Amino acid sequence: MSKPLEGIKIIDFTHVQAGPACTQMLAWFGADVIKVERPGAGDVTRSQLRDIPGVDALYFTMLNSNKRSLTLDTKTADGKEILTKLIKESDVLVENFGPGALDRMGFTWEHIRELNPGMIVASVKGFSDGHHYEDLKVYENVAQCAGGAASTTGFDDGPPTVSAAALGDSNTGMHLAIGILTALRSRDVTGRGQKVAVSMQDSVLNLCRVKLRDQQRLDRVGYLEEYPQYPHGTFSDVVPRGGNAGGGGQPGWVLKCKGWENDPNAYIYFTIQGHAWAPICRAIGKEEWIDDPAYMTAQARQDKIFSIFGTIEEWLKDKTKFEAVDVLRKFDIPCSPVLSMKEIANDPSLRASGTITEVDHKERGKYLTVGSPIKFSDLKVEIKGSPLLGEHTDEILESLGYSQNQIAALHEQRVV
Ligand code: CAO
């Protein structure tokens, strides 16, 4: 089977992480993604945090695979003409410039729609249109603070904390990809393109919806029984930081295993799922707790949950995190070793599934990247290296009807 998005042409005006994560995924699934970059410099991530002098940084290569690169100065008259031709024959334009940059370039939504009524214009911004912060430029951690993640992450006695997961960037890109696919489906029916906008604040909040649930519960009853502050601590009128507590009805915590004194990741995440209480007791050798009224219900366990975790840590003392999980899985207990990035990079299962995959790059050689987390029965996703800056400029200009002489002149004038 050909790839599902084959035939969809995307002008990729994205940079850094939020936009590139979106277009990279669409490229994996078959879209022709043309990354438009400023001549001479390109996406800032090409040169950010470089590990090999003069070679595109991993930050860039891991977010721009399977794309083509066109250099173009869209602020010149010739650059605008090239972009106009591209718009006329493309399906989607994706951008995550600062607010108003596309308009200032002369490509407003109204103008793009005139050029190509079928065009889908997809944007990431920090805040949504009309928001009182709509003029702000935004990066990852700014969005995590604005979207409710930071105020609810970390420990009660520490400051608001951001997550290492790219909740503001890649997560927003994934939301945008869903929006683009929805608009493409709509265009199949109506023939019309549309504007698709996703804000980083909204995307973070979408993942923090259970915290808004908790705010309303707190407003009503004054406490949150699954948080470590309950029942011995105090609550204010805002959702507190819950440390490593399980987010739902399953109390959980990160517990020390053998070697934790020297290994920062010698821990497991352990979950006390209500109906798994008897297996948990059997697994940790505390059968007497199974029918003990002081322990046998979730409610009875609530006020001594940390002493229960302490007992489990005693049991974990002579087991590595992997040995512990190997025992607990036999009892059907939801748990996982806390894996370091080094362990993840070498994980045979992640390698076998293609979630961790080795890619070849023309200048860097081989490097690891995260492959498609979505698996299909009828599509094998192949991850290819990212393009060099302007690698496909000439072939794209040729396809737009430019002659070799014209292309040479455009290079000379630094338009491309
Ligand atoms: N040719 C000519 N000009 C170009 C160009 C090209 N190919 N590509 C970009 N530019 C210009 C833009 O038109 C803009 O010009 P003006 O401001 O003069 O109109 C200029 O480059 C700067 O663009 P920018 O505002 O996007 O870049 P920045 O580095 O100042 O800000 C960022 C970066 C990420 C903060 C901002 O783009 C932003 O807020 N984006 C939306 C939110 C977002 O996606 N953030 C996530 C980034 S991932 O962490």
TrEMBL record:
It catalyses: formyl-CoA + oxalate = oxalyl-CoA + formate. Its EC number is 2.8.3.16. The active site is at 169 (nucleophile). This is Formyl-CoA:oxalate CoA-transferase. The keyword Transferase applies. It is an enzyme of class 2 (transferase). CoA binds at residues 15-18, 38, 72-75, 96-98, 104, 137-140.
